[in-house]
Structure prediction request, 241 residues.
Amino acid sequence: MDLKNQIDPNKLPAHVAVIMDGNGRWAQQRGKERVFGHQNAIDAVRATIEAAAEVGVRYLTLYAFSTENWDRPKNEVDTLMELLVNAIRNETEALNKNGVQLRAIGDLKSLPDECYASLMEAVELTKHNTKLTVIISLSYSSRWELTKAMTQIAQKVKNGLIEPEEITQQSIIDELETASYPDPDLLIRTSGEMRISNFLLWQIAYAELYFTPLLWPDFRKDHFYEALLDYQKRNRRFGKV
Prediction:
């Protein structure tokens, strides 16, 4: 029996988040510049989206570019932005064909104008799709997100819209970039690094974590299925007995 058919459709995570790590090392292992790894990561993104849609995952969040990534060499950042624009334009038709809705979180206005425009166009063109929602995290970090949320809550207090003692966990959730989505059930990180890297720190409080040594450009459907099968062996207690 292949891996896909071993998956129990009744025990699927509703939301899977992925830290797509290892592009630079993948390229360096082949004697290439880091941007070569980014160029070859598109196939992994496509395979992961297709796998998630095929098995019935409802939400897939991909960590594509962090606020800290702006500090990388300008050539690498420029190439990443160009790749992003081209990928969005090239994949929108396939997203519609497969019933995939594209959304985005992060400091999106910090993106180059062409990148932002292409992203918003794809979001608009796919907004009626319901099979799978793919959430791209761009110019995002959890500390940035939480700082923004606290600032917005503080402004509400200042304006007399809420009293400090009325602030609840839900008050914070409502100000997060992910307010419209359920928290991830499963977080996958490639490349063998075992850290969260400032990604969805609030939202993954009770997520199951799955680390694989595989570098992101080599990630394919079967690797996604392996993560799901591992998840289905877990006993999720959410702090209870």
